[in-house]
């Protein structure tokens, strides 16, 4: 997985002039500022989320409910960053690339620790403040930045007033089944490979 660690996760692969609202699948990585471990810890190869990590997990999946024609696919909250796959489509089905979407598999939901998310709903209902439900406007940058904003507001209000994300995020356009499968596996294996991760010990 050196390709992910040295390309997808370090340098932005954003293509000049590419329409990131275009239907397709995108691999996104977002890091906490200074790569500080805000979200929990790895225990025996399993990510144990703290309250802030639970909020981040919940907001990511909530994004898939708030944005029209968006599905959230494989996703992991790590101690100081998150990896996820976002699928944008005009009418998304379970087989965007001929592979069953994670949204249609049986999954175990990470327990959420009772943090109010009313602010996210208010963002949605306030013109110019919330996540756009217009596919033409809901590009990867808008979706990601609104997710970061919702997490920042919730974490600062409830847990850590000084929390912040890095200003950038990293994205990669997923172009075929093989890439989608490989990236899903990479995300799933992230906790097991934590001690080898470039962000380990940050």
TrEMBL record:
Transposase IS200-like domain span: 22-190
GO MF entry, a single one: sequence-specific DNA binding
Annotated coiled-coil segments of the chain: none
GO biological process: DNA transposition
Entry-linked InterPro entries: RAYT_transposase (IPR052715), Transposase_17 (IPR002686), Transposase_17_sf (IPR036515)
PANTHER family assigned to the protein according to its UniProt record, in alphabetical order: REP-ASSOCIATED TYROSINE TRANSPOSASE
Protein name: Transposase IS200-like domain-containing protein
Species in which this protein is naturally found: Turneriella parva (strain ATCC BAA-1111 / DSM 21527 / NCTC 11395 / H)
């Amino acid at each position: 997985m050196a390709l992910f660690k040295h390309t997808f996760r370090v340098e932005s692969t954003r293509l000049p002039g590419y329409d990131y609202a275009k239907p397709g699948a995108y691999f996104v990585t977002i890091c906490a500022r200074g790569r500080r471990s805000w979200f929990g810890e790895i225990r025996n190869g399993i990510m144990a989320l703290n309250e802030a990590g639970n909020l981040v997990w919940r907001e990511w999946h909530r994004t898939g409910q708030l944005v029209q024609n968006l599905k959230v696919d494989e996703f992991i909250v790590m101690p100081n960053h998150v990896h996820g796959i976002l699928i944008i489509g005009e009418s998304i089905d379970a087989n965007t690339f001929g592979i069953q979407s994670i949204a249609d598999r049986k999954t175990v939901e990470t327990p959420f620790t009772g943090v109010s998310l009313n602010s996210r709903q208010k963002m949605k209902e306030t013109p110019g403040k919330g996540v756009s439900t217009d596919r033409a406007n809901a590009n990867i940058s808008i979706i990601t930045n609104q997710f970061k904003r919702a997490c920042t507001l919730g974490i600062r209000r409830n847990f850590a007033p000084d929390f912040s994300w890095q200003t950038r995020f990293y994205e990669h356009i997923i172009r075929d089944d093989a890439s989608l499968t490989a990236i899903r596996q990479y995300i799933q294996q992230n906790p097991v490979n934590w001690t080898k991760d470039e962000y380990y010990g940050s």
